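W.,

You were right to be curious about this one. When I first looked at the sequence I had no strong expectations either way, so I just let the prediction run and decided to look at it fresh. Below is the sequence, 111 residues in total, followed by the output.
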Amino acid sequence: VQLQASGGGLVQPGGALRLSCAGSGFTVGSTDMSWLRQAPGKGPEWVSAIHKSGESTYYADSVKGRFTTSRDDAENTLYLQMNSLKPEDTAVYYCAIGDFWGQGTQVTVSS
């Protein structure tokens, strides 16, 4: 099983990014999946989750209304659309299955 997050970068406050998480060795629609992040000098923070049915998504209060998790079963890929980004969203973002985290992608929100 492999998880590879991508799509991070440098964006100005108020901007948007879409992160992707490509899965291999498993089907993304077969399991609940999560997004987490870790800011410099801080512990991991849960961001969002999607039920394996794809019908339910969940968000941390800090991102609710700004971030959207979705899934493309044909592409076997999980997405995190991030809008209205704030400097405090700066972190390395990871997709995960339970306690298994893939490689992260850096998101930096700065003017």
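Here's what jumped out at me. The radius of gyration is 13 Å. And, maybe more interesting for your project: The mean pLDDT is 96.

Coffee later to discuss?

I.
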